[in-house]
């Protein structure tokens, strides 16, 4: 895997060292309106992504046509590929991690790569816990509009506002023109659900005070037969 213009950090990964094995099985991916060019090992990315697996199964791939992702961001795709090739999330911009993680989750979710989507979720939670911050309203709006309904990312955003947002921010929600109405309705429903379930005062307080980083590691994850649940359910500190 490599953008045409620069060598990725994942160059030393085991998958990268197998380049000779898959040299004749590479695919070309053109990303964004400027069509940034990436060369990816078909075997590796199709094993991770249902989107690429389906795209590479189509008849037009036999003609060696490139896969075009016109609406995607090249930087986000580069981050995604580094994650796929074992490079972790070191490519995330430390100045705007929430934005980068949300974009990565949206892309991974559309690609059907649950491991990458789960990694993005973990990144959001870890940064929030370390820096004592939550995504601002603009980022919450992006998360809500760029992910499917009831997705783990949407549930995480709702939980941030229910359990970790400040009282001042809650007071201003009725005048908010940024957050989608569906999100505001979901926040209210979650408050109602907790209130109805909290018959004992201590139980209610425990529910409201349990932040995302204190929940089991897989709480906001997606898993299936291809992407089984984490062996260690304890979230790293």
Automatic annotation (TrEMBL):
<dbReference type="Pfam" id="PF00651">
    <property type="entry name" value="BTB"/>
</dbReference>
<feature type="domain" description="BTB">
    <location>
        <begin position="25"/>
        <end position="93"/>
    </location>
</feature>
<dbReference type="InterPro" id="IPR000210">
    <property type="entry name" value="BTB/POZ_dom"/>
</dbReference>
<feature type="region of interest" description="Disordered">
    <location>
        <begin position="1"/>
        <end position="20"/>
    </location>
</feature>
<protein>
    <recommendedName>
        <fullName>BTB domain-containing protein</fullName>
    </recommendedName>
</protein>
<dbReference type="InterPro" id="IPR011333">
    <property type="entry name" value="SKP1/BTB/POZ_sf"/>
</dbReference>
């Amino acid at each position: 895997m490599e953008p045409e213009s620069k060598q990725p950090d994942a160059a030393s990964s085991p998958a990268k060292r197998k380049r000779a094995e898959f040299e004749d099985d590479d695919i070309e991916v053109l990303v964004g309106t400027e069509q940034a060019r990436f060369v990816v090992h078909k075997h590796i990315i199709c094993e991770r992504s249902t989107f690429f697996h389906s795209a590479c199964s189509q008849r037009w791939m036999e003609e060696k046509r490139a896969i075009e992702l016109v609406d995607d961001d090249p930087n986000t795709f580069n981050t995604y590929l580094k994650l796929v090739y074992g490079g972790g999330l070191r490519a995330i911009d430390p100045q705007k991690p929430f934005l980068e993680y949300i974009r990565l989750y949206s892309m991974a979710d559309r690609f059907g790569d649950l491991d990458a989507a789960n990694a993005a979720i973990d990144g959001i939670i870890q940064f929030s816990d370390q820096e004592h911050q939550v995504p601002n309203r603009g980022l919450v709006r992006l998360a809500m509009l760029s992910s499917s309904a009831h997705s783990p990312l949407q549930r995480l955003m709702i939980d941030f506002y229910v359990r970790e947002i400040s009282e001042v921010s809650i007071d201003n929600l009725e005048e908010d023109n940024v957050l989608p109405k569906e999100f505001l309705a979901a926040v209210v429903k979650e408050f109602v659900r907790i209130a109805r379930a909290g018959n004992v005062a201590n139980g209610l307080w425990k529910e409201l005070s349990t932040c995302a980083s204190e929940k089991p590691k897989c709480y906001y994850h997606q898993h299936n037969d291809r992407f089984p649940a984490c062996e260690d359910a304890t979230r790293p500190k």
